[in-house]
Specification:
Elements lengths: L1 H10 L2 H25 L16 E2 L2 H6 L3 H4 L7 H22 L1 H25 L1 H5 L8 E2 L3 H14 L4 E4 L3 E4 H18 L2 H24 L7 H13 L16 H13 L17 H25 L6 H11 L3
Antiparallel strand pairs: 1-2, 3-4
Helix pairs in contact: 2-5, 5-6, 5-8, 6-8, 6-10, 8-9, 8-10, 9-10, 11-12
């Protein structure tokens, strides 16, 4: 089992990695809960604040725990909360990643979670009804991947609104209607629960709104996640990798481009068929070298495009060509 887990982590795409991070954090947090209960141990952090990983609407505490702005979107206490979020992430993540690639999947998840937090934070500090819903001296905390997952959901529905998904008892339903139902559940959920739950629903809507805006602006040539994706590129291009890649030293490409090629090939979970090639024993050396030069030139152009705009802006044919070249060498 452990070997299967390691294999899915190293060979799987970003979708697998996001799910595994959520699951591992869930296991560790529940292990801490069990230890504190059975050992009667008192810790400075606990369940309410996700053992120091959940984010809060209290500015003073937030400034002392800035990491929670990111960590909260990987934290779950309840198993059903985790299960629902991961099922939805797996369901929509496959469709979304197939359209835009692993890089955009990761940036959408993170930016959606950040958008959900921002809406939650502003709501609790501006709307008096939410503040008054808290008990005296109590503090509101938010955790879970719901806002991040909702951003992927609405982004997927915005890209493919008419794509039909088969649902038990309902048959084939267009994706835009499924997303609409999920959004409406969160919208009406604001009035159904107490103020604390309402804050969570508001965060979900913030993530959903970001997913829609991300795709809408992207169609106009504006990338709302460009800064975060640049940071991701910088971090990942600095990390060592063991995978094979195209030997681009002969093509005088900078080493950063080589690492980017390795990185995106590793993260892309889609297994595209490699185009079949036919050998031609009568092909002259001149023709062979000419074709090799043309492939090298095309590869350079694709790598430049990745450097300027990101992997998700490649066409399907360019991605297929990149995958084929990465298998050589």
């Amino acid at each position: 089992m452990w070997e299967d887990i390691k294999s899915s982590w190293y060979t799987g795409g970003m979708l697998y990695k996001l799910i595994w991070v959520n699951v591992i954090v869930f296991i560790l947090i529940n292990a801490a809960i069990i230890l504190t209960k059975l050992g009667d141990i008192t810790l400075p952090v606990g369940i309410n604040d996700g053992f120091g990983l959940a984010v809060t609407s209290n500015l003073q505490i937030l400034l002392s725990r800035p990491w929670t702005i990111f960590t909260h979107m990987f934290v779950h206490i309840d198993v059903f909360h985790l299960l629902i979020n991961m099922m939805l992430l797996w369901w929509m993540g496959q469709i979304y990643s197939a359209e835009v690639g692993s890089r955009r999947l990761l940036s959408t998840y993170l930016m959606g979670g950040l958008a959900g937090f921002l809406v939650y934070f502003l709501a609790f500090n501006i709307l008096p009804g939410l503040r008054s819903s808290l008990d005296k001296d109590s503090i509101s905390y938010a955790l879970g991947a719901s806002a991040a997952v909702m951003s992927i959901f609405t982004a997927t529905a915005t890209i493919n609104p008419n794509r039909k998904i088969r649902i038990i008892l309902f048959g084939a339903v267009e994706l835009k209607y499924i997303a609409m139902v999920y959004v409406l559940f969160d919208y009406f959920g604001i009035s159904q629960g107490d103020g604390v739950n309402a804050g969570g629903k508001i965060a979900h809507l913030g993530g959903a709104l970001f997913g829609y805006l991300l795709v809408t602006f992207d169609k106009k040539g504006v990338n709302l996640a460009s800064f975060l994706e640049s940071v991701i590129d910088w971090i990942m291009s600095s990390l060592p990798t063991k995978s094979k890649s195209v030997d681009i030293k002969k093509r005088r490409r900078p080493s950063g481009s080589s690492r980017k090629l390795k990185f995106w090939r590793n993260l892309d979970f889609r297994k595209k068929p490699q185009p079949k090639t036919r050998s031609n024993s009568t092909k002259s050396d001149e023709q062979f070298n000419l074709e090799k030069k043309e492939r090298a030139k095309r590869l350079d152009l694709i790598l430049d495009k990745i450097s300027r705009h990101g992997y998700d802006h490649l066409t399907k044919e360019e991605k297929r060509f990149l995958f084929t070249e990465s298998k050589k060498g």
